[in-house]
Design brief:
about 10% helix, 2 domains, five-stranded mixed beta sheet, Immunoglobulin-like, 1 helix, mainly beta
Length: about 230
C-alpha cells in the first residue's frame, strides 16, 4: 500500500513537471475593440502573442468567422519566452451597427489548443438606405387593390457631400421617380418613390432590387435596396 502511494505521488509529480514544461500560448489581450468606425475604410489592430511555456509553440492555423476579418502572423513557431505579433484587419464594408467577429489561433498547446480574440466595432455607414427593403402587395383574387407606391430615403451620415450617381430598378415594372443624379449635404437625406406600373399584374412572387451608386470624395459605393412583390 505504501509503495503504491509513493508510486502515485511520483507519477503525479512527473505529470506536473511535464505540464510545466509544455508550450503555452499567452495573449496580450483577448478583445480588440475598434469603437466607432465608418464603413469605407478598413481598420487594423495588433495583439502580442507569447510562448510562456518551456517547449516550442506552433500556431498551425488562424481561423476567422467572417471574410471581413483577417488575421496575419509574423511568426508561426515560437521558442520558450519568444513573442510575435498578430495583425488583425477588419473591413466594415456593407456592415451597419454592432459587429463582433472571432479570430481563433489553433496551436499545439496541450492544455488549450484554441485561443480566441474577439474583434468588435460599431459601424456607421457613410450613407445608408431607410428602409432597406420594399414589399409591394398585389391582390390577385379580387380587383381594385394594388399597393402602387412605396418610399425610401438615402441618408448622408458623413461630414461631406454625397453624390448620388444613379438609382436604378432591376425590375422593369417598378420605376424609381426623381432618380436624376443629385448631391446630398452632410446630415441630410433625399426621399425617393418606387412605383408599380398601373397595368402590371404579376403572375408570381417577384424578388428584385434597386441598385444605388453613391460617391463620397473619390470613393464609390454600391448599395442594394431589396424589392419584393407579394401576391395575395
Amino acid at each position: 500500500m505504501i509503495r503504491w502511494i509513493c508510486f502515485a505521488v511520483a507519477a503525479g509529480l512527473l505529470v506536473t513537471g511535464t505540464a510545466g514544461r509544455a508550450q503555452t500560448l499567452t495573449l496580450e489581450r483577448s478583445v480588440v475593440d475598434f469603437g466607432l468606425v465608418y464603413d469605407n475604410e478598413s481598420v487594423v489592430g495588433r495583439v502580442k502573442i507569447t510562448n510562456t511555456g518551456n517547449a516550442q509553440l506552433k500556431i498551425d492555423k488562424v481561423n476567422t468567422t467572417c471574410g471581413c476579418t483577417v488575421g496575419r502572423l509574423q511568426k508561426r513557431q515560437l521558442e520558450p519566452g519568444e513573442s510575435t505579433v498578430a495583425t488583425l484587419t477588419f473591413d466594415p464594408t456593407g456592415k451597419n451597427g454592432a459587429e463582433s467577429k472571432a479570430v481563433t489561433f489553433v496551436t499545439n498547446d496541450p492544455v488549450q489548443a484554441n485561443h480566441k480574440v474577439t474583434v468588435k466595432a460599431q459601424v456607421i455607414p457613410l450613407w445608408e438606405l431607410e428602409p432597406t427593403k420594399l414589399e409591394f402587395v398585389v391582390r390577385t383574387k379580387a380587383t381594385g387593390f394594388k399597393q402602387e407606391s412605396l418610399f425610401f430615403r438615402i441618408i448622408n451620415n458623413s461630414e461631406v457631400e454625397l453624390a448620388v450617381l444613379s438609382v436604378d430598378s432591376r425590375e422593369p415594372n417598378i420605376r424609381i421617380e426623381n432618380n436624376k443624379p443629385v448631391v446630398i449635404s452632410p446630415g441630410e437625406s433625399r426621399q425617393y418613390t418606387a412605383s408599380v406600373h398601373g397595368d402590371w399584374v404579376p403572375d408570381k412572387r417577384i424578388s428584385s432590387k434597386v441598385m444605388i451608386v453613391g460617391r463620397i470624395g473619390d470613393k464609390e459605393q454600391v448599395k442594394k435596396l431589396r424589392l419584393q412583390v407579394k401576391l395575395q
